[in-house]
Amino acid sequence: EAQVTQNPRYLITVTGKKLTVTCSQNMNHEYMSWYRQDPGLGLRQIYYSMNVEVTDKGDVPEGYKVSRKEKRNFPLILESPSPNQTSLYFCASSLSGWNTEAFFGQGTRLTVV
Amino acid sequence: SQQGEEDPQALSIQEGENATMNCSYKTSINNLQWYRQNSGRGLVHLILIRSNEREKHSGRLRVTLDTSKKSSSLLITASRAADTASYFCATDARGGSEKLVFGKGTKLTVNP
Question: What's the mean pLDDT in A22-47?
């Protein structure tokens, strides 16, 4: 089954404790992206990747890192999480750019206390 | 930065009625997409309409695009309680942007 898998689905952590949210897609998609969703602000793009070893900042990249060492994986790293990074995070992938359908993971609800 | 803006922010209708949601955007686009999100879940793609298309249908969904007005509409006919969800438009931007930018969404409630 074609899917984008994020882990974990829920995470509560403390300020400053490094964490990684994993994202994996099994559709051989070139494009991958991370979004955060906050009430009243909609979805905002954090980082995106057009292919292996190619990543770029989205609209809200501060406090986040990403890597794209393999085509299928696009982990989101929070080196020193802060409470303002409490949010619902989504990973998405697309075959060959954002002029094709994007597939979304089920989301990771992160709480930083 | 938000490219698309949906209108209305919230819409409540009775089952069987039609629901219309609108999206306006600022810059020229290559395509516009509509997505649905059930509460707290991942987004699901509904329809993609390209800048050279004016109308597209998929089942009970009808999407129109007016590039001169920089606007699109999503019509759901004969709505069902299961259509209750948030609906988002998303655009890329003509001119090289490699980003897919979402609006803030319309929250649709279909009452049984």
Answer: 94
Q: How many CB atoms lie within 10 A of CB B95?
A: 9
What is the C-alpha end-to-end distance of chain A, expressed in Å?
Answer: 36
pLDDT at residue A90 tops 80: yes
Partners of B20 in beta bridges: B75
CB contact under 8 A, B45 and A4: no
Is the predicted pLDDT of residue B94 greater than 70, yes or no? no
Give the pLDDT of residue B99. Answer: 77
Judge: B98–A31 Cβ closer than 8 Å, yes or no: yes
Distance CA B91, CA A42 (A): 14
Indicate the average pLDDT of chain B.
91
Q: Are B90 and B101 in contact (CB under 8 A)?
A: yes
| Mutation to test the A interface, candidates B5, B34, B98, B107, most A Cβ within 10 Å | B98
What phi and psi, each to the nearest 5 degrees, are found at residue A85? -95, 5
Q: Tell me the average pLDDT across A97-105.
A: 87
Q: What is the DSSP letter of B16?
A: T
Q: How many degrees, rounded to 5, is the angle at CA A88 between CA B11 and CA A93?
A: 95
| Residues of chain B positioned with their CB less than 8 A from the CB of A105 | 42
Q: Is the peptide bond before A83 cis (omega within 30 degrees of 0)?
A: no
Contacts of residue A95, defined as CB under 8 A and 6 or more positions apart, other chains included, come to A27, A29, A30, A31, A101
